[in-house]
Amino acid sequence: MSEKTPTVSVIIPTYNRAHLVGRAIRSVLNQTFQDFEIIVVDDGSTDNTEEVVKGFNDPRIRYIRHEYNRGGSAARNTGIRAARGEYIAFLDSDDEWLPQKLERQVKAFKDLDETTALVYTGLRFVDRKGALIREQQPRLKGYVFRELLRRNAIGTASSVLLRRESLLSVGLFNEALPSRQDLDLWVRIARRFKVFPIPEILTIHYVHEQRITANLEAKIMGHKLFMVKFDKELRSQPRALAWQLYGLGMLYLQKGELALARRILWKSLNKWPYPKVVLTWLILLTGSRAYVFAKQIKSFL
User: Fold this and answer.
1) pTM score of the predicted model
2) Per the CB 3.0–4.6 Å rule, which of 96, 101, 114, 252 could disulfide with 257?
3) Residues 164, 133 share a domain
4) pLDDT per residue over 165-187, tens digit each?
5) Which of 178, 206, 234 is the last residue of a domain?
6) Containing domain of residue 104, as a range?
7) How far apart are CA 16 and CA 229, in angstroms?
8) Which residue, 162, 185, 206, sits at the end of a domain?
């Protein structure tokens, strides 16, 4: 007899997180919906990740290893190519799910037609110790291409369940992007398909402080490449372009490049005068404590 194909393929990319990946795996094993396979893609770890994963001794868990570190998008794509499920879920190895996450999403898909490709949940953002930072309720529904061009209102990949055929039809994660890979994929999906929200907090996302400038550089480069890729669409939608310029300006502000941040924010104002952009610009006119302001202001980044 042939092995039964699972309904959901859960892809967990990981790199040197042996101390965390077990928590992520357990949150999948504790789901109320149990018809899944777990594909852990070890992106060239040098710690005991393999030992931790194989220690679960569950036949539904498959371990795939990259010989060297290729990045999160490449690891996710390796998992997608190996996946057998009708639906595909992603779980970052430092995140976790609440028990009813998959059950709620699979049930939603069963009630929706094939014009819907993505179902996502609410998010709880916590710090390393598990203390609540904020919660994000899902709001976008239907054809939301224009809204996603403005900002990533879906959030982290850990909250998403995708119809596998729809994902393959738009292409996998863009491995050339140093950041914004999630948003790039959501926009490509939203160009052709609907999205559907589950109005519950079912995904826990752990927020880690930025530790090195290179991470900020990657965010800036990914942001700029995203804007270049969707240049035509953004230029036809001034509100979306203004918000993307605002985000880029705020990144340069965090980097401490005040003059460049001002120029970009001025461009944003000229496209669409969002109140937040106006306030930011007025504060920056003084030039005082710009970096502190950039760290404190609440934005979508």
Assistant:
1) 0.91
2) 252
3) yes
4) 999 999 999 999 999 999 999 99
5) 206
6) 8-206
7) 32
8) 206
